[in-house]
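Convert to structure. Protein one:
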Amino acid sequence: MDLPRSPDTDVMVRELWDRQQIIDVMLRFGRGLDLHDWEMYASTLADPFEADFFDLTGHPAVTTTPALFAKFASACLEQLAVMHQFSNFSIDVRGDEAQGIIYHISRHRMPNRRGDDHYTQYGWYENSFRRTADGWKISRLKHTFRWCDGNPTLIDTSNPEWQAAAATVFGI
């Protein structure tokens, strides 16, 4: 009985390296959100890229730029303390393109008088990635909720800054 042949060591190392670089992109993506470092956050996104935040906005996917989407993220999260945790990385690299499913728990907190001081999203990202001259970037960002706990009004969609950023990105 012939056993399946293992890939060449160089191929395995390259695939492991690419996977780790993609994981690092997602970790910088979350760290940028947590620190409100919008430059770091934007640096993880291809220019342009597809953003599908239907679960948050109720609007279909759009093609946008990292700078515009960073303004949208800032309008959503700047007033909140946030912490993003990623796990269950499933990444399929095919040359200079990759697909990934990355589970997330996204915690948001702000003391307020309207309800709970927290809002937590549980779900995953279904992302595409592209190798660029500057390394791997997110070329498609799909944010999916499985369920949420707490007070969703902490992301204040009535805020004029949020409305302006959402209008620019999603045409709302």
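Protein two, convert as well:
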Amino acid sequence: MSSTSDSAERPTAPVGNGIAINPSRLQIVAGRWLMFSDYGAAAQRHMAIVWSCVLACALADVIWLPNSRLTFISSNWIEIVQGVVCCVLAGAFIAYASSRLRGDARFPAVILRTALGMTELLWRAALPIGALLTAGATLSYLITAADLPLQDASLARLDRDLGFDWPRFLDATNSSPLLASLLTRAYQTIGPVAELAIVWLALNRRGERLAEMIAVLSLSTVALCIGMWLVPAAGGFAYYKPAPQLFGNFAALGEMWSFAQTFNMLRNGSLSVIDLSALQGIVSFPSFHTMLGVMTVYPLRDTRWLMIPVLLVNATMIVATMPVGGHHLADVLAGAGLTIGAIFLVRLRRGDD
């Protein structure tokens, strides 16, 4: 990275009405926002993985979408542009405010600078995560709409080979209203827990650890798309078609297998648009809930007072993926295995913690 003095000595390039732009300054800003360059070489390696995964998913979307029966509605582009503009405006405001406060030793100024740093890190994380989820979700819709032969029979057979009986497990967990309620609520915690992990890392200025978490998420997303392409599945509820009395206590707390309608509409062609404002999770194999459950515990590994409660909640949530989310046990094992593999890949060539 260029030093401050080097940056000052380099000529600026006039643009338009004479306003000068310093190329070195732009490079530094781009490095901070896209590559987390101010958090060291490890963070930059993590972010290189992230943007490579985003590019891979986006490239697959660009190639596949024109040859599919789905269309990317025009309002999606408005949402994407709005998101990018929000990040640019946030970056400009944070940079301006920070420069005005730089060198001010008064206590309010110190507090504001700290808050701006935390806010900046959150915005910087939101940019690649948003790009990844947009490209990954679009690809998951394209894969589902391809209407590939379902492999639930093979997954059910694998469960039985492992000694797991899905209908019996559903019946056993449904037998207690208290347990059904606990599992249903645990299943719904996955979004808030993931957001908690991201916010915690940002508030503590753990940019390298946050970049690591996003890299694991990126590799897991690519692995998920490959998995659902190779092993398309509808899940336990669609395969076993359990009698209502086997899941009555779960159904009383909300809709079972909530993504069934979108999943089926994509496969039969009655849903022909991708609307980013109305996306539904449609993945059975591997379990994305399980993936998030593993990856949100890992970055908290050196904060035990927080990691242990998150671990307990996520472990309960992973159990809930089968009776509440309708996943086969094989879905859960695949999700956990792929995410652990992603963690090992991200940690490759690292010598610290």
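The CA atoms of residues 15 and 73 lie 35 Å apart. The longest strand covers residues 13-15.
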